[in-house]
Design a protein that fits this description.
With 41 residues, the protein is mainly alpha-helical. The chain has 2 helices and no strands.
């Protein structure tokens, strides 16, 4: 088991760099839909 910790992508906006340099990536696409569906301000 590989125990290397991934880096946090603070200030990184380039998706290719995120992948190539082994940064964490969290896809929040589903969160956007949930926010729009519950937009009752």
């Amino acid at each position: 088991m590989d125990r290397r910790k991934k880096k946090l992508p603070i200030g990184i906006e380039n998706f290719e760099k995120l992948c190539l340099e082994d940064f964490y990536y969290i896809d929040k696409t589903g969160l956007i839909k949930e926010l729009l569906d519950n937009w009752d301000c």
